[in-house]
Amino acid sequence: MRPRSIPTMNQCMALVVIALIGPTLASRLLAQQLPPGAGNKIIQQRQLLAIRPVKVSVRVLAESITVGTRPPVQVTLLNADDQPVPTAEDWQCEVSFRFPSGRSVSQTVSIKKGESTAQLEFYAEQAGLTSISVRPLTGSARPDKTDVIVLPKNKLSKRKQPQARLHVSPRYTYTIVALNGDGDLSARLRTVRLELTSEGSSSRQDPESHGQVAANIPVLHISVNDTGGNYIANGKDAAKISAIFYSPDGSPAPTDIDIWFHRTNGLLNPPQPLHIAKGSFKAEADLTSVWPAEIQVNFVNSTPRYQAEGDTDFTLHFVPPGVVLLGPTNLSVVDNAPVMVVFFDAQNNPVAPGKNWKVTLHSQQSKFRFAPQSFEVQPTSPTGSAVLFPVSFGADKVEAVMANYNPQPLPIVITGWLVLGLCLAGGVAGGLVAYNKFKGSWLWRIFLGILGGAVLCWLYVYLALPNVDVNIAHNTFSVFFVALIGGYMGITVLDFAAKRLGISL
């Protein structure tokens, strides 16, 4: 057996380059195969996304929070690039506060039209870990969550240290031996009680810290702002991972703490480890991705070692920045054309979504039929398509309905002038053929040809085509041959049409 060769350094570098530029090169090749004008459509869709809110964020505008205070809370609408965007209408958002005891309260805040932020206050009624979440009541923006530590009014550093006290009580009897000046022993009985107590200790729970863990064991609380949401794979929309040092006595981290995670993809900023500085409570990191993917994140350990709770094992979904709907702008009433949805990345290139995505097509005026009406875009394909069949004249708009996306409708004008011309030409040609065979008046034969061709074309367009998916039937020039047959048949077509429509002549 021949020994397996070891790749050289140049070969390894070539493999790395192929891995890095492969997806980009494939996207550019696919972009060249899209319909003309697809690039401009993608750019227009991307510009619309820049002014559209895709998420709502919540944060507390205070460095430290103590029991009894009312810190301000700010709610902000953000676009996919993590920038504040004003809303085109009033937005109602529900802000919920979950206290350490488990009790929750909610209130509604309104972001006015033309603004991007709103503020409210919450009453910090309990010491410990408080969770604040926000979700929009109007619109489809992604919700958000943050956790904060509420400190007791009397901080631990200001409390007195434990002291020993001596109390006298007749509960215990001790023998006190004294030696007199002559060396004789004389004994006297006295009753004393020795009791050591610690100032500040009590069997009763501190009312400011009720609902907390009884054991005085510090833990690390790991949380993500939205574990079930979809994040935009553009390198800017971030999943915020936070680690909070929580001690039931309200004390901050006694030393620097480094926290390590394992992830299957994406970029952490700042890089690992997540660092909680001595004397503080919280550290945060942003996880982003430039490619659509499902990223699994797991808590590994910390230095010094602490037990972790909360979101210690979770999966984040990163999806393409946008979707564009492509198709013709003009279409003959007897023709057909493909209509497709295309996912695109931050560089406006087609990109695979990374998971199945269901798409359902609709027409606003019901002047189109789709085959199929619903389909799925596969995880490894940037596109999905269906065939468009007109069933009437006029203008209509095609819409693509899909979760988490709202691509611009596609306006299409259904034309019929060419069809009318071909119908007229075919009827005349059919009448001339009938005149050549059956003689008679050529004007009468042409008139009957035009009439027969028009009736048969009408049956073809409105009765046959909506129920036929054969491409050769949905061809503009097929009208000429249908009209030719109708023109040759002449008035016989009227009897045929009457039977098809159930009319007795």
Summarize the structure.
This protein is of the alpha+beta class and 505 residues long. The chain has helices at residues 9-33, 38-50, 417-438, 442-464, 478-489, 492-501, and strands at residues 55-60, 65-66, 72-78, 91-98, 104-111, 117-121, 128-136, 144-151, 173-179, 185-191, 219-224, 230-232, 239-246, 257-263, 267-269, 274-276, 282-288, 293-303, 308-310, 313-319, 322-326, 330-332, 337-344, 357-363, 368-371, 374-377, 383-390, 394-401, 410-415. It folds into four domains: 51-152, Immunoglobulin-like (Sandwich); 218-318, Immunoglobulin-like (Sandwich), CATH 2.60.40.10; 320-410, Immunoglobulin-like (Sandwich); 417-501, no CATH class.
Describe the structure in your own words.
The chain is α+β, with helices and mostly antiparallel strands and 505 residues long. It has 4 domains: 51-152, Immunoglobulins (Immunoglobulin-like); 218-318, Immunoglobulins (Immunoglobulin-like), CATH 2.60.40; 320-410, Immunoglobulins (Immunoglobulin-like, Sandwich), CATH 2.60.40; 417-501, no CATH class. Helix content is 21%, strand content 35%. It is built from 6 helices and 29 strands. The protein has helices spanning 9-33, 38-50, 417-438, 442-464, 478-489, 492-501; strands at 55-60, 65-66, 72-78, 91-98, 104-111, 117-121, 128-136, 144-151, 173-179, 185-191, 219-224, 230-232, 239-246, 257-263, 267-269, 274-276, 282-288, 293-303, 308-310, 313-319, 322-326, 330-332, 337-344, 357-363, 368-371, 374-377, 383-390, 394-401, 410-415. The strands form 7 sheets. It has a 5-stranded mixed beta sheet, with no helix packed on it. A 5-stranded mixed beta sheet has the order 15-17-13-11-19, with no helix packed on it. A 5-stranded mixed beta sheet has the order 12-20-18-14-16, with no helix packed on it. Helix 3 packs across helix 4 and helix 4 packs across helix 5 (478-489). The protein is elongated, with a radius of gyration of 39 Å. The N and C termini lie far apart (89 Å).
